[in-house]
Design a protein that fits this description.
This protein has about 180 residues and is mostly beta strands. It has 3 helices and 11 strands. The relative contact order is 0.20.
Length: about 180
């Protein structure tokens, strides 16, 4: 068993593109989104992986990752993944002795850009590159995961018009973030 120790940040500008030494296309889907045991299938260019991650404890969590055949991964993504398949371009950016991974999301999450850095220990301090903004690591951010399609049949009983939900999340520091979800049933 390995430990994943990482910090995540929102990205404020695109200077990482000029600093990157490589990039790759990633497709990934989740077989389980249970916080106790997240199971992910990922295809990264011409390689594929099955990854199991335990619950976050701040920036640290258990992680197991295994290579699998790309054909099997693509079938799992089509037949077994819960929710939408994530599409992203990952840039590898060396900065002061650390390699930062910057993900530009596409599809349903187009416009989201997140940077993360893996650390050798939880007390390691990594210098922050110029494109890094607000930290969104572990305990300070709450993530919500649900399948809206489970509610659509109920909504269709009443109307087939546009539906709107407002979600507000409060982190442990009392900061509130909101988003509005709109969809046609």
């Amino acid at each position: 068993m390995a430990k994943e120790i990482e910090r995540k940040f929102l990205v404020t500008n695109d200077s990482y593109r000029h600093m990157a030494t490589s990039s790759s296309h990633i497709e990934q889907g989740y077989l389980s989104r249970d916080p106790e045991a997240t199971v992910r299938v990922r295809v990264r260019d011409d390689r594929a992986f099955l990854t199991v991650k335990g619950r976050n404890h701040g920036m640290v969590r258990d992680e197991w990752e295994y290579p699998i055949p790309v054909g099997d991964a693509r079938i799992m993504l089509r037949r077994c993944a819960r929710g939408s398949i994530l599409q992203k371009r990952r840039y590898l950016v060396p900065f002061e002795g650390f390699t930062w991974e910057v993900d530009e999301f596409g599809g349903d999450h187009a416009g989201l850009v997140v940077a993360e850095v893996e650390l050798p220990s939880a007390d390691t301090v990594a210098p922050l590159p110029p494109f890094v903004g607000e930290e969104v690591t572990g305990d300070d951010v709450t993530s919500i995961s649900f399948n809206i399609t489970e509610f659509v049949p109920l909504l269709n009983m009443y109307t087939d018009e546009m539906h709107q939900f407002r979600i507000t999340v409060t982190d442990k520091k009392g900061n509130k973030k909101g988003m509005t979800l709109k969809f046609q049933a």
